[in-house]
Amino acid sequence: MSQESLFDFLTSTRLPIVSSLSTLIGWLSLGLAIASATYGASCAVLAEGLWTGDLPWSGALPSLAAAPGFLIAWRHWRGNRLQPAAIWLFIALFTLSVLANLPRGAFNAAWYLHPVLALLASVCLGVIPGLVLTLVAVTAMLIGAVVHPGEQVPAAALPELWVHVTSLTAVVLASALAGAIVNRLLYMALLAAEAQRRKNLESSRALRHREKLLRHALRVETIGDLAGMVCHQLRNTFQVLLGHVTLGEMADDAERARRLALIEETLEHSRPLLDELMTMAHPDEGATESCDLGEQLRHFGAQAQRVLPAAIQLRVEIEGDRLPVLLNPRGLVHALWNLVINARHAIAGDGSITLRCGTVRGVAWLEVVDSGCGMPPEVQARIFDPYFTTKPPGQGTGLGLTAVARYVRGSSGEIQVQSEPGRGTTFRLSFPLREPADRVRSA
User: Fold this and answer.
1) Residue that wins the pLDDT comparison between 8 and 141
2) pLDDT of residue 394
3) 197 φ/ψ angles, rounded to the nearest 5 degrees
4) What distance in Å separates the CA atoms of residue 327 and residue 348, rounded to the nearest whole number?
């Protein structure tokens, strides 16, 4: 980028301060254009002389000369050209200041406004435009010191005049150089900040992409465990279907019709198992939405009941009429499958898994309780650590519970675990309610 494109650079970053700065330039230009034109026209009509030190702002000429510059700056601002608008605004300000001070002589105190204008011009416009405007203003001031219209300076005072003019010139030039340095430092700082912002944005995108791939890998792992249980149930279903087909071949037409109806009923009963696998395998993560935690748990329990072996009893207990929460339903289902599959692995032989939810003090809670082998305290302390697993090598990644904990915390919730060896495990998930729930009741 060129050194004059600081405003373009700021505009490209779309920072809030740029909007405020643009508004200031636009309305300041319009206000000064109207004020200058009004004052200049009034002086031209009512006062004697267009340019004299006896009049405020030295008459009509400075205001009338500066008004077009202010108007051009406002037109550039209307066209979203911030850099040209700022340049014309400072041209008009320098024009107004120089023409207003020339009739009043070199010792006029208003000349000390120029160091401020030079500093602001160099900071805002850049090195070249700021220095050019400053040199023009300094040249006009030096010409005024020689010509000094409207003021008679004795010959004895000429050395003092030149010392004053030289000192003021040096101050103006020093202010312009200081502004140029500030402009460069500001530009480099903004450029470094923008580069860091872009780098952070790319890193954030890469991190989100890796997390998406990790979640998909975890889903695939969960699907593998779930598919094993589904296959076991489907094997039993196929045995039932084969029995109906065999008996139907040896029966009369009425019995065959009844057997076909039973086959259809069995297939309809097995379809949700395959639908659940397809839903879990879908790459779409879903969106956050308001949902009823009790209804979600009831639906999940109906699906899990079909998958779990008959030796494991599944109970669903829901307290409360409505438990409105804000979360991703598909993420909740994935988290629950992780917990239920872990509970299934922890149960050797017969056992039970209880899913229950309720509310307490503005918080909706959900528990997954199993009657499995439990965990010692040292294992409980590490179960949410990435890659920690108690399964044999090749049978677990140690990321399932990590993903569950991340999902819960990403939904503004909390996850807790209580377990004792030989006495089962309880996972408790808590989410903030979106609105006060109804009074708790037993489902």
Assistant:
1) 141
2) 52
3) -65, -45
4) 33
* Residue count of the chain: 443
365: Cβ contacts below 8 Å, ≥ 6 apart = 357, 358, 359, 428, 429, 430, 431
- Which residue would you say has higher pLDDT here, 344 or 238? 344
The mean per-residue pLDDT over the stretch 271-297 comes to 71
Domains of the chain: 6-203 (no CATH), 287-443 (3.30.565.10)
Residues forming a β-bridge with 352: 313
- Nearest CA-CA partner of 230 in 184, 281, 193, 183: 281
pLDDT > 90 in the chain, percent: 12
| pLDDT surpassing 80 at residue 26 | yes
Q: For 127-161, give one letter per residue: b (16+ CB within 10 A) or e.
A: bebbbebbeebbebbbebbeebeebeeeeeeeeeb
Token pair of 442 as six digits:
């037993």
Task: Find the range with the poorest average confidence among 11-25, 81-95, 312-326.
Answer: 11-25
Cβ(429)–Cβ(405) under 8 Å?
A: no
Rounded CA-CA distance 300/350 in Å is 21
331 pLDDT exceeds 90? no
Cα radius of gyration rounded to whole Å, the chain: 40
Contact 41, 57 (CB under 8 A): no
The model's pLDDT over 90-121, given as tens digits with 9 standing for 90+, comes to 899 988 888 888 877 777 778 888 899 899 88
Q: Which of 290, 297, 288, 234 is nearest to 266 (CA)?
A: 234
Among 393, 285, 382, 263, residue whose Cα is nearest residue 330: 285
Checking 62-65 for CB contacts under 8 A at 24+ apart, the result is: 62/95, 62/96, 62/99, 62/100, 63/35, 63/36, 63/37, 63/39, 63/96, 64/36, 64/37, 64/40, 65/95, 65/96, 65/99
Q: Is beta strand 289-292 parallel, antiparallel or unpaired with respect to 324-327?
A: antiparallel
Token reading at 282: 């879908």
Instruction: Identify the helix (H) or strand (E) that includes residue 357.
Output: strand 351-360
Q: Is residue 237 scored above 70 in pLDDT?
A: no
With the C-alpha atoms ordered 167, 171, 174, 176, is the resulting torsion angle positive or negative? negative
Helix (H, G, I), strand (E, B) or coil at 108: coil
Mean pLDDT lowest among 132-141, 300-309, 314-323: 300-309
Residues 6+ apart with CB under 8 A from 146: none
